[in-house]
Design goal:
Blueprint (H helix, E strand, L loop, with lengths): L1 H17 L19 H13 L5 H12 L2 H10 L1 H9 L5
Helix pairs in contact: 3-5, 4-5
Length: 94
């Protein structure tokens, strides 16, 4: 049974190493691979963050940060905690 497992793993390794999956139609190696640019990655993460609502603990954490700045606190009272935090501190970190 061990011999069969080793043979299967070796055959998969040979197939992966000899396949043309990593080449484009031009015959050049694909440059993208598993890595992406930092801007693209942050955009994907930002989109995922925007889909779920913030918990009460997260909102309280934003409120505490915003209360340290008087202008942010005033804006928080009129515009809301999320608008005030993003205006003064940038995107929400979670």
């Amino acid at each position: 049974m061990k011999t069969l497992s080793v043979l299967v793993l070796l055959s998969l390794a040979v197939i992966c190493l000899t396949s043309d999956a990593s080449q484009t139609a031009d015959g050049n190696l694909a440059q993208e691979g598993p890595f992406v640019e930092k801007d693209e990655a942050s955009e994907v993460v930002r989109q995922k963050r925007a889909t779920r609502p913030l918990s009460l603990t997260q909102l309280e954490s934003l409120r505490e940060v915003c209360e340290a700045n008087l202008a942010c606190e005033d804006m928080m009272d009129t515009e809301g905690i999320i608008a005030a935090y993003t205006a003064y501190y940038g995107p929400i970190p979670y």
